[in-house]
Amino acid sequence: MRRLSIVMRRALFFAAGWLFVVIGIIGIFLPLLPTTPFLLLAAWCFSKSSKRFHRWLLNHPRLGPPVRDWQGHGVIGPSAKIMATVMMGLAILFPLLLIKVPDWAKWTTVVTTTCVMTFIWTRPSRPVNPKI
């Protein structure tokens, strides 16, 4: 019985990994859907389910670099920081300016977005000790 639950857990992590890869790829083309967080989730799921696909994701020429940067050094690249800031700014302008929402919802949106942007901008943009 225990063996079955391990197999089932790995299968669920594997399926979730692919779901997050697909969502991450969709995020490349949809401006308000972030890519990297979903790829990080996919990498984590694959690390629990399939070493082969975990390596594939880390070594992928397009999808791998931000995942490797984050996992290895906690780095968020400058272009990703700028893009995230612009997209989050645009995303909060819509509910704040164009539709009627309660004041508490506006403040919640502003505070949450500010916290996320603060986190993003306090991460290093390059590895602290890059290997030369």
Give a quick precis of the structure:
The protein is mostly helical. About 75% of the residues lie in helices and about 0% in strands.
Low-confidence stretches: none
| Individual helix count | 6
Alpha-carbon Rg, integer: 18 Å
Distance between the termini: 50 Å
What labels describe this entry?
2 domains, globular, 6 helices, about 130 residues, mainly alpha
Describe the structure.
The chain is mainly α and 132 residues long. The chain folds into two domains: 1-73; 76-132, no CATH class. It contains six helices and no strands. Helix 2 (36-49) runs antiparallel to helix 3 (51-59), helix 3 packs across helix 4 and helix 5 (78-98) packs antiparallel against helix 6. The radius of gyration is 18 Å and the shape is globular.
Topology of this structure?
Elements: H1 2-29, H2 36-49, H3 51-59, H4 64-73, H5 78-98, H6 103-122
